[in-house]
Amino acid sequence: MLFSLAYRNLWRNGRRSLLTLSAMIVSLALLILALSIFSGMLRDILASATEQYHGHLVISEGDYQENHDLYTTLAETDLPLIERLADSDQVTGLSPRLRGYGLISHTDNSYPAELLGVHPSQEAGVTSLQRQLVAGSALNDGDDRGAIIGETLARRLGVKPGAELVFVTQAADGSIGNDLLIVRGIFKTGDSAHDNGLLLVPLGWLQRTLALPGQVHEVALAIADPMSAPETAARLRPLLPEGVSIVDWGTLLPQMREAIASFDVSRMIFSVILYFATGLGVLNTLFMSVMERTREFGILMAIGLRPGRIRLLVLLESILLGLLGASLGVAGGLVLCALMRDNGLDLSAWITPISYAGGTLPPRLHTVLELRNLLDPTLMLLLTTLIAGVFPARRAARLQPVAAIRMD
Coil, helix or strand for 27? Predict the structure, then answer.
């Protein structure tokens, strides 16, 4: 009986209920859309920061990630063990790397640069550098001295695909390492650190130039879910040989980890502000409904309906309003997210890519629908409507039957 009464009372003033319901639906749908756009932005900038250079997990000897010491290396004979440890459904790519620093020259121009020695086919499964070419072609495993170079560095050196470069560095045996490279392609990431001074070169060539045969500095891993990197690292760490460490992207990019943490705080603040206004609308609707039915409540209490049942009746009205608004709001949010999921909104005509926290945010808005983007705002809306219903319910339950019946 209470349920049918609550539903009937909800529509006694249909216009007021519809206005409140509309505000709930619009606020929930737009909040789901906004949170999904934020998730898309975070996914883009995280992919940029990890898939352009670092990878999601990095295995290395000792404290190499802290000091990048030339001599802190792993022997390639140890890699089969690491490959077996990393052979899981989560790991999608693995790339051994050797890192070198030195002077890169072309004709009369010379600039300091970082050279990353890789097996091109394996590196392509971890990073996206070879898919971000603006000129030339990517490296292949049979190329012994090819290189792809950042766009800004290529412009400063005045080189195009096919040009020769001279690399000079201090080799591990104390000699001066130097050799020629052929520019195969030019990449552009939008990250000045990479575009200004990074080259991708064959691993074997760099091992010979640095006098580090059979050695690598690190093994970069890509995993299916970047957000689970800390858990995957914790699972693999006990299985690695003594002295070998594994770190996730959050350790390599602390600014990115902080950006994601701040997003969680921002979404909560954004939700609270939006639902505070929505809660006032629900509170107003229920208070007005209770005041209009004061005599009705008095009669119900006079014929034996207990105050607790009156309180429950008003709360049921609040819950029904919240459930109806939540269901329609989620449906609206899903539709909006689906419309912006694939193509999104291209803003490249108005803004340029933005570098932040070690990554690059492209000028495009699109949605990534995560479960929490639905659950968090929906549960908050239901909680808001329930809290908004408590005060009118208390007022109705505290009415005196005789005074309520006499009230006009």
Answer: helix
Radius of gyration of the chain (CA): 31
- Strand segments, DSSP code E, in 329-407 are 345-346, 354-356, 359-361, 364-365
Cα separation, 393 vs 292, whole angstroms: 13
3-state secondary structure 243-262: CEEEEEHHHHCHHHHHHHHH
Measured CA to CA, the distance from residue 362 to residue 348 in angstroms comes to 8
User: Along the 408 residues of the chain, how does pLDDT read in single tens digits?
Assistant: 666 766 676 667 677 778 778 888 888 888 888 888 888 888 887 777 788 888 899 999 988 988 889 999 998 887 777 777 676 667 888 899 999 999 999 988 999 999 999 999 999 989 888 888 999 999 998 888 999 999 999 999 999 999 999 999 999 998 999 999 999 999 988 777 888 999 999 999 999 999 999 999 999 999 888 888 888 888 888 888 888 899 998 888 887 778 777 777 777 777 777 777 777 777 777 767 767 766 766 677 777 767 777 777 777 878 888 888 889 989 998 998 888 887 777 777 777 776 666 666 777 788 888 888 888 888 888 888 888 777 777 777 777 766 667 665
The pairing of beta strand 164-170 with beta strand 91-106: antiparallel
Give kind and range of the element (H or E) at residue 369: none
In the chain, the amino acid numbered 63 is D
Of the candidates 336, 334, 279, 310, the one whose C-alpha atom is nearest the C-alpha of residue 404 is 310
Could you tell me if residue 306 is left (phi over 0), alpha (psi between -120 and 50 degrees) or otherwise beta? Answer: beta
Q: At 219, is the secondary structure helix, strand, or coil?
A: strand
Angle ∠(180,119,105) on CA atoms, nearest 5 = 20
The owner of tokens 């505070």 is 276
Contact yes or no for 190/361 (Cβ under 8 A): no
Indicate the domain borders of the chain: 2-49+257-406, 69-216
Between the alpha carbon of residue 136 and those of residues 148, 156, 167, the distances in Å are 9, 17, 20
CA-CA distance, 27 to 309, in Å (whole number)? 31
- Cα distance between residue 256 and residue 42, in whole Å: 9
Classified as helix, coil or strand, 344 is coil
